[in-house]
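#structure-requests
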Amino acid sequence: MFEIACERGFCATHYLVKEGHALEPRHGHDWRVEVVAGAERLDDVGLVMDFELLREALEQVASRFHYKDLNEHPDLAELSPSAEVVARYFFSEIRKALGARGGQLLRVRVHEAPGCSATYAEG
């Protein structure tokens, strides 16, 4: 299996909720998202996928959150935007952005703070 990865950071605030009530004060993070695509065989150019395709898909999704509150994003408004939930959201949205190449997306890892991350993959 061959793998490629791209990373991008963004700054955003959030707070966790349960049954509509905040569990903590609103606070910010310098989030970092890593996306990994893979393939058993390389294409005729010798690639899993062009890095730019993966980078553009990641940029498209991450730009929705830069300097924003995750709790106010329409797709996350009814959820508690934990790192795990954010990782699942990025996975889904990046796969859509990649179109036909989306099946090559293996996993998304979201770093909420140095040394603290959550990963989402579909198996």
